[in-house]
Design goal:
Layout lengths: L2 H11 L5 H8 L3 H13 L20 E9 L8 H8 L4 E6 L6 E7 L2 H12 L5 E8 L5 E2 L2 E2 L13
Antiparallel strand pairs: 1-3, 1-4, 2-3, 5-6
Helix pairs in contact: 2-3
Length: 161
């Protein structure tokens, strides 16, 4: 494995590592590793460093939804411009171009289901190129970004169907 890929793979698993720890792991001199990290940050290979949080273990109320969006692509711009318009909203966490029965998957978070519904009805659905939306609420997370959430935790909340 190339040294860049090795560094990225390690950082993807644990971004808390210090440059010194990372340099030891990939057997590089610290100044060389730091220069390589700066280069990858500058060229956009490394876009950021995030912490994955289990918000269910806090007092913060949060609802996450996946929204299927069918759109009419804009002439000369395809899906990119409408995707940019969608991801510019602060509630939007992720936007993906999809194959299959719809065009975009939009992942958003809000304090309540009503917040999410308001975003869809007032911001997303009225957009000029949006043909239709389908909203799916996440009821429970089991695994995200390679990290397993403890499904057997002491949280007695159950989903009633």
């Amino acid at each position: 494995m190339h040294v860049k890929e090795k560094i990225l793979t390690i950082l993807e698993q644990d971004a808390r590592l210090t440059p010194a720890q990372l340099a030891d792991m990939v057997q590089m001199e610290l100044p060389e590793l730091e220069a390589l990290l700066r280069e990858m940050e500058k060229d956009g290979t490394i876009l950021g460093y995030k912490t994955l949080i289990d918000w269910d273990k806090t007092d913060r109320e949060q609802v996450t939804a996946l929204i299927e969006v069918k759109i009419t692509p804009q002439k000369g711009m395809g899906f990119d411009e409408i995707a940019r318009q969608i991801y510019s909203h602060h509630q939007v966490e992720s936007v993906y171009l999809m194959s299959g029965g719809f065009d975009l998957t939009v992942i958003i978070s809000g304090r309540t289901m009503r917040d999410v519904a308001r975003f869809v009805s007032e911001q997303l659905a009225p957009m000029e190129n949006v043909l239709s939306t389908g909203t799916h609420f996440i009821l429970k997370k089991y695994k995200e970004q390679g990290v397993t959430f403890n499904p057997d935790d002491s949280d007695d909340r159950e989903v009633m169907m």
